[in-house]
C-alpha cells in the first residue's frame, strides 16, 4: 500500500480574453470545475496504475462529491476528513495563448492533525510506502513519524521549500524532483550542476530526477540509471510529474525494480502529455502496457 498524505483541490478554470486588470470586472468565456492538487493527482495515478492507495487529507463537509470522484478512481478515501474550512482550491485564468494566472488557497489542506496522521501511520504494514508533497501542513512531522515506524518514505517537495526539504532529507528514502526543484534544492542554476551538487551534499540520498522530454535519471550511492522519455506529440504537460510519481511508486510498492518502475512511469507520463487536463489525462495500467507493446 502507498499512504499518500496530500492535497485535494477544486480547480476553477476561467477562459478569458486577457488577465483581469486592477479595478476591472470582466466576464469569463467559459467555466469548468475540475479535481486538482498534486496529492489528489498522484493518488489518481497510483490507483489507475493498479496500486493500492490510501489517501490522507481533508476537504470541506459540503464537498463529498470530490471524495466520491477520488473513490471512483479506486482511491481508498476512508482517511479523508470532512472539515469546516473551505476545500483547497485554485482560481485559474486561462488565455487563448495558453498562458495562465493562478490564485491558490490551501484551506482544508492545512487542517491535517498530528493525531490523525499518527493513527493512520500506526496501522501501516512493514513494506508500505508513505508519499508526501508540499501542499499540506505537517509535512516534516509526517516524514519523521513515518521513518520512525520504519516505513518507506517518498517525498516530492513541490512547491519547493529548500529549507524544509533539507531539514528532513535524512528521513527520506526516495526524493522525487523535477529540474526546477533539483536546482532550487542544490542552490545552483543549471541541471548539470544540480546532478553534481546533490550527491555531493547528500551522499546517502536516493534521487529520482524527472527531466521533462529528456526523461528521468535515478541516482543513489549504489546506482546511476537513466531512462529516456518516449517521443510523443505533447499537447498539455499538466500532471506529467504527478503521473510519473504515481506509476513509479505503484510499481515500487509492488516489488518492481527501479528500472522497470522508471520505464512504466515514463510511458504513463508520455501518454499523459498527449491529452488535455489533469486527472482525466492519466492513463490506466492497461493503456501503458499497450503503449509499451506497440
Ligand atoms: P513536472 O511536470 O513535474 O515538471 P517533468 O516535466 O520532468 O515533471 O515531466 C515528468 C515526466 O513526464 C518526465 O520524466 C517524462 O518521462 C514525461 N514527459 C514530460 N514531458 C514530456 C514530453 N514532452 N514528451 C514525453 N514525455 C514527457
Automatic annotation (TrEMBL):
GO biological process: D-ribose catabolic process
InterPro entries linked to this entry: PfkB_dom, Ribo/fructo_kinase, Ribokinase, Ribokinase-like
Gene Ontology MF terms: ATP binding; metal ion binding; ribokinase activity
EC class (word): transferase
Subcellular location, record wording: Cytoplasm
Pfam family, one: PfkB
Reactions it catalyzes: D-ribose + ATP = D-ribose 5-phosphate + ADP + H(+)
Active-site residues annotated for this sequence: 242 (proton acceptor)
Cofactors named for this entry: Mg(2+)
Binding site for K(+): 236, 238, 272, 275, 277, 281
Residues annotated for substrate binding in this entry: 9-11, 37-41, 135, 242
CDD domains: ribokinase
EC number annotated for this UniProt entry: 2.7.1.15
Residue numbers binding ATP: 178, 210-215, 241-242
GO cellular component, one term: cytoplasm
Cofactor annotation remark: Requires a divalent cation, most likely magnesium in vivo, as an electrophilic catalyst to aid phosphoryl group transfer. It is the chelate of the metal and the nucleotide that is the actual substrate.
Regulation affecting activity: Activated by a monovalent cation that binds near, but not in, the active site. The most likely occupant of the site in vivo is potassium. Ion binding induces a conformational change that may alter substrate affinity.
Keywords: ATP-binding, Carbohydrate metabolism, Cytoplasm, Kinase, Magnesium, Metal-binding, Nucleotide-binding, Potassium, Transferase
Stated family: Belongs to the carbohydrate kinase PfkB family. Ribokinase subfamily.
Subunit text: Homodimer.
Function statement: Catalyzes the phosphorylation of ribose at O-5 in a reaction requiring ATP and magnesium. The resulting D-ribose-5-phosphate can then be used either for sythesis of nucleotides, histidine, and tryptophan, or as a component of the pentose phosphate pathway.
Protein name stated in the entry: Ribokinase
Species of provenance: Marinomonas piezotolerans
Gene: rbsK
Amino acid at each position: 500500500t502507498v499512504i499518500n498524505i496530500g492535497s485535494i483541490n477544486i480547480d476553477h478554470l476561467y477562459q478569458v480574453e486577457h488577465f483581469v486588470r486592477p479595478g476591472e470586472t470582466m466576464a469569463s468565456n467559459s467555466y469548468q470545475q475540475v479535481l486538482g492538487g498534486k496529492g489528489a493527482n498522484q493518488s489518481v495515478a497510483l490507483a489507475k496504475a493498479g496500486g493500492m492507495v490510501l489517501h490522507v487529507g481533508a476537504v470541506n463537509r459540503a464537498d463529498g462529491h470530490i471524495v466520491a470522484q477520488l473513490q471512483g478512481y479506486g482511491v481508498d478515501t476512508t482517511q479523508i476528513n470532512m472539515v469546516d474550512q473551505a476545500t483547497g482550491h485554485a482560481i485559474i485564468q486561462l488565455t487563448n495563448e495558453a498562458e495562465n494566472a493562478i490564485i491558490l488557497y490551501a484551506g482544508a489542506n492545512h487542517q491535517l492533525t498530528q493525531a490523525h496522521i499518527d493513527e493512520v501511520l500506526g496501522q501501516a504494514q512493514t513494506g508500505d510506502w508513505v508519499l508526501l508533497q508540499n501542499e499540506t501542513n505537517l509535512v516534516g512531522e509526517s516524514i519523521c513519524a513515518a521513518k520512525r515506524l520504519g516505513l518507506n518514505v517518498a517525498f516530492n517537495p513541490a512547491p519547493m521549500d529548500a529549507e524544509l526539504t533539507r531539514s528532513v532529507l535524512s528521513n527520506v528514502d526516495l526524493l522525487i524532483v523535477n529540474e526546477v526543484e533539483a536546482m532550487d534544492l542544490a542552490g545552483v542554476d543549471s541541471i548539470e550542476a544540480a546532478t553534481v551538487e546533490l550527491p555531493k551534499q547528500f551522499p546517502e540520498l536516493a534521487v529520482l530526477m524527472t527531466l521533462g522530454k529528456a526523461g528521468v535519471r535515478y541516482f543513489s550511492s549504489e546506482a546511476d540509471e537513466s531512462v529516456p522519455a518516449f517521443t510523443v506529440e505533447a499537447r498539455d504537460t499538466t500532471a506529467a510529474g504527478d503521473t510519473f510519481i504515481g506509476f513509479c511508486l505503484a510499481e515500487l510498492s509492488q516489488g518492481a525494480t527501479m528500472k522497470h518502475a522508471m520505464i512504466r512511469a515514463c510511458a504513463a507520463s508520455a501518454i499523459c502529455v498527449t491529452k488535455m487536463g489533469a486527472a482525466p489525462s492519466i492513463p490506466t495500467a492497461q493503456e501503458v502496457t499497450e503503449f509499451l507493446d506497440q
